[in-house]
Amino acid sequence: xxxxxxLFPEAINSHVAARYWYCxxxxxxxxxxxxxxxxxxxxxxxxxxxxxxxxxxxxxxxKNVYARFEEMxxxxxxxxxxxxxxxxxxxxxxxxxxxxxxxxxxLWKERQIxxxxxxxxxxxxxxxxxxxxAQQQLLISAWVFEPFINEINYDSAPNHYLxxxxxxxxxxxxYDEIPYNTRDVxxxxxxxxxxxxxxxxxxxxxxxxxxxxxxxxDHCGFWK
Length: 224
Ligand code: SF4
Hints:
By secondary structure, this protein is of the alpha/beta class. It has a domain at 40-193. The protein is 39% helix and 23% strand. The chain is built from 7 helices and 9 strands, in the order βααααβββββαβββαα. It has helices spanning 14-18, 24-31, 41-54, 60-75, 127-151, 182-196, 207-211; strands at 11-13, 79-81, 86-92, 95-99, 103-107, 112-121, 155-156, 159-166, 172-179. The chain starts with 10 loop residues before the first strand and ends in a 13-residue tail after the last helix. The structure holds iron/sulfur cluster. Iron/sulfur cluster (SF4) is lined by residues 23, 25-26, 204-205, 209-210, 213, 216-217, 220, 222-223.
C-alpha cells in the first residue's frame, strides 16, 4: 500500500475525489502525490461533446441565477469563473474541495437548483464503472455549491441529474436521478481523508482496471 509522502492536500477537485469509486489507489496518487492523468484521445472527444452541450439555450431563471453567481464572484475568492466555466470551493477538515459543475437547472417555483453532470461514453457498458464516479462528482458539486445557492435563497434539489451521451454522435443515452444528502457527501469526504492519512485501508480495484492502467501503474503501491 502506498503511504502518502507529501503533505495532506490543501485542495482537491471533485473529479479527483470521485475517482475513489474507480480506483482508490489512483485517487490517492492524484490527490496526495499530485500525479496528473495523461490527456487521451478519448478525453478530447468528451471535451468536444461538453462544448457542444454548453451551447444549449438558457432560461430566464437560469440567466438570473448566473448573474447572481457573477456578482458573488466579484466579492469572494471562493466562487469564480475560469476557462472551464463556473467553479467554487468549500472547506472540509481544512482542505478546499473544488467543484466545476457541468451545468444546472433552476426550478424557480420550488426555489431549488438541480446540478447536472454530462458524461460521454463510447460503450454503454462503461456506465457500470463510470456511473459511481460520475454520481459522486455530481454530489460533491451540489455540496460545494450549497452555501452559495442558500445565499441567493435557493436550496439544493432533492435529486441531481446525470446525463449519458454517445461520444461519437452525442446521441442521448438516458439519465439517472441521483438523490442528494449533505450528510452522505460529508461521510464520503471523511472516509476519503482517513484513507489519505493512512488510517483506512485502500481497497484494490478489479483486476481488469490494473491491466488497462497506463498513467499510474509505475507509481502504484499494489505493483511495487
Ligand atoms: S495499477 Fe491498478 S491499483 Fe494501481 S492505480 Fe492503476 S488501477 Fe489502481
